[in-house]
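Figure 6 in text form: structure in, sequence out.
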């Protein structure tokens, strides 16, 4: 029988209850079940007393989780899914994301669909969709001082966010460019429907091998989102005398000093999403974000008496 891993948001009662129910259900069927809190995938926020909270990428893997696990289930909202993939990507464990949160853009199933989902998992009736991830590192005098695995995006901005500053950005071997903005976003295709979308970036379908650079509130009519090959690394130099903040997947990060630089590149790890039905990205866009809904015809004019 399969070996199963369950990752759940242990501050949500419904996720805890469902995790325990799943553990009992899989155990009754003869499966070995390992459980872990998604809290282990949270990077932690820096503060002035501890500007760098650094945990190496491979050290976020939960205890006893390894590549012998056949599949996993992650229970929570999108934040839990992001944390879960940071935990299991080094082990190449495919995850079924089950929504117990709100929007659930990254989730595949709902709690009330779990009985059927469990049967499909045990029967092997599912596909695996690979999504690209980023490795984000902060370098100080060419020495890595912080790193993280990223599924959505990394954001570099100044505190407070409304303060405009300059960034020198080099993509691959191309000449560096200067961007004047409140901050910059480097996003994967998966992250193109997250913060990048709110900042005016385009939506990118998941299978396209690209990254995008999106300025936040740029102070130029010519500064727009840029889409480029994910084979090219990105290096960002904060061209400002002020301390900045780096945030990955809206989850955690570290302070960045003027002499630091940030290097972003496609990771050799991927997020492996379990799909119980054929992926239909446009359907998800329509259901979750309202994209492509038919226009409602205007009412015909009515003659007043």
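Output sequence:
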């Amino acid at each position: 029988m399969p070996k199963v891993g369950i990752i759940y948001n242990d501050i949500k009662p419904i996720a805890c209850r469902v995790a325990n129910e799943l553990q009992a259900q899989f155990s009754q069927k003869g499966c070995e079940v390992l459980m872990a809190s998604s809290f282990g995938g949270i990077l932690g926020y820096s503060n002035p007393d501890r500007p760098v909270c650094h945990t190496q990428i491979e050290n976020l893997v939960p205890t006893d989780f390894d590549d012998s696990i056949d599949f996993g289930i992650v229970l929570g909202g999108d934040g839990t899914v992001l944390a879960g993939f940071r935990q299991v990507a080094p082990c190449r464990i495919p995850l079924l994301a089950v929504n117990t949160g709100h929007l659930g853009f990254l989730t595949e199933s709902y709690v009330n669909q779990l009985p059927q989902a469990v049967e499909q998992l045990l029967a092997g009736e599912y596909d695996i969709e690979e999504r690209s991830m980023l490795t984000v590192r902060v370098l100080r005098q060419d020495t890595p001082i912080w790193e993280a695995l990223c599924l959505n995006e990394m954001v570099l901005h100044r505190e407070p966010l409304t303060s405009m500053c300059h960034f020198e950005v080099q993509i691959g071997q191309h000449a560096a460019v200067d961007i004047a903005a409140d901050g910059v976003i480097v996003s994967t295709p998966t992250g193109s429907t997250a913060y990048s979308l709110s900042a005016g970036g385009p939506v990118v379908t998941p299978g396209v091998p690209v990254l995008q650079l999106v300025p936040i509130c740029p102070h130029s009519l010519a500064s727009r989102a840029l889409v480029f090959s994910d084979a090219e690394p990105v290096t960002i130099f904060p061209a400002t005398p002020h301390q900045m903040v780096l945030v990955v997947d809206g989850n955690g990060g570290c302070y960045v000093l003027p002499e630091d630089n940030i290097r972003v590149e496609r990771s050799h790890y991927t997020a492996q999403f379990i799909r119980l039905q054929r992926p239909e990205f446009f359907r998800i866009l329509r259901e979750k974000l309202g994209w492509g809904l038919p226009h409602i015809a205007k009412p015909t004019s009515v003659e007043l008496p």
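Caption detail: The first helix runs from residue 13 to 28.
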